[in-house]
Amino acid sequence: MLAKIVLLGEFMAEKKIVFPGETLTVVEEFISGKNTFEDDEGNIKAARVGEPVFDEEEREVFVKSKGGKVKLRRGAVVFGVVEKTSEKHVLIKMLHGYFDGKPVYFHETFARLGIASASERYLKSMRDEFRIGDFVKAEVEKVTKFSVDLSTKGKEFGVVKAFCAKCRKELELVGGKLVCPGCKFFDHRIVAESYGKE
User: What is the pLDDT of residue 11?
Assistant: First the structure.
């Protein structure tokens, strides 16, 4: 257990942003603080998107929420989770974003990623490139009163975290391919160059 705690602590110390449901540490090492929760197995997990903070003195872990005062606009970078997929579009629930180094704000906002804005190469179907539950980094292409359109063109954009379709473990990027560390299932996505690091 001690080895697990140490490794987990070292791993989390390198992470800048965590997503809801992501394991931060275990209850034997820290107590659950703001924007975190404890599951039935004694793991402390993030309840919001933000920066993990480990208070060594108080032995408390919390997530510093990414609030902001900049309005969502074209050119902003956003992180979100795929809620629905179709042949030509993906619906993404936006969780956090920034523009010119400053956080942007929005509330329960969904955005659309169209097939023409997903990649420079030809895509047959968006269902081949994105799955429900994937975490995506994208650029805001257009904002209207009724919708937000995103783009994942460019190596810095795409899926930053994905899960195995068979066993739901987090997929690892190995030699340009996504592989499950558990069942060794290979999968495909449009991945960002920062996959597994954000």
Answer: 44
User: Domains (ranges, CATH) in the chain?
Assistant: 2-65 (2.40.50.100), 70-157 (2.40.50.140)
CA pair distance 57, 47, nearest whole angstrom: 22
E strand intervals along the chain:
23-26, 31-32, 36-38, 43-46, 50-55, 60-65, 70-71, 77-85, 89-99, 102-105, 110-114, 135-143, 148-151, 158-161, 172-174, 177-179, 186-187
Rounded distance between C-alpha atoms, residue 29 and residue 35, angstroms = 17
Residue 67 has pLDDT above 70, yes or no: no
Q: Structure tokens of 33?
A: 């603080």
The amino acid occupying position 162 is A
Distance CA 68, CA 63 (A): 15
